[in-house]
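Hello forum,

I keep getting stuck at the same step: I have a sequence, I want structure tokens, and every attempt I make locally crashes halfway through. Rather than fight my setup again tonight, could one of you with a working pipeline run this one for me? It's a single chain of 147 residues.
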Amino acid sequence: MTNDLALINKLITEVERSQNERSADDFLALFRPDAVWVTAFGRRFSSKAEISDFARKVLTPDLGDQYARYDVAHVTMLSPDVAAVNVRQRPIHKDGTPIEGELEGSPLYVLVKENGRWMVGAGQNTKVQAAAIDTQQSEIDAREGKK
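Reply #2:
Ran it on my machine without issues. Output:
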């Protein structure tokens, strides 16, 4: 399991590097052919071919000085060959400083190990909306009689 965690961390590092270098080819090499990907805005792609079409349009220098830092937040081994990986995705400038006003992302990747290599089988990216989270929790607390 320790080796799997190291390999999973390495894969997430590769997701970060490939996106920050705007390398669609390197990014796509991390996906299974039948992968499913959902963007932070809810757009779903149901195959590597669809993910490829999208990635080649967005992973370009047109992104300007917008990059991201990826940190593994949590790993749940669903089976020896399947892992659910929560990631903290922070928007940064090329020099590593945070981009003020940009929301963090909270991706969930379902990774599948094939022939000893971890690959993305599914990904769901979500923008972290702290105010909405706080409102939702307040509503839950009110229903449960908590203050």
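The helical segments are 2-20, 24-28, 48-58, 130-143. If your local run keeps crashing, start a new thread with the error log.
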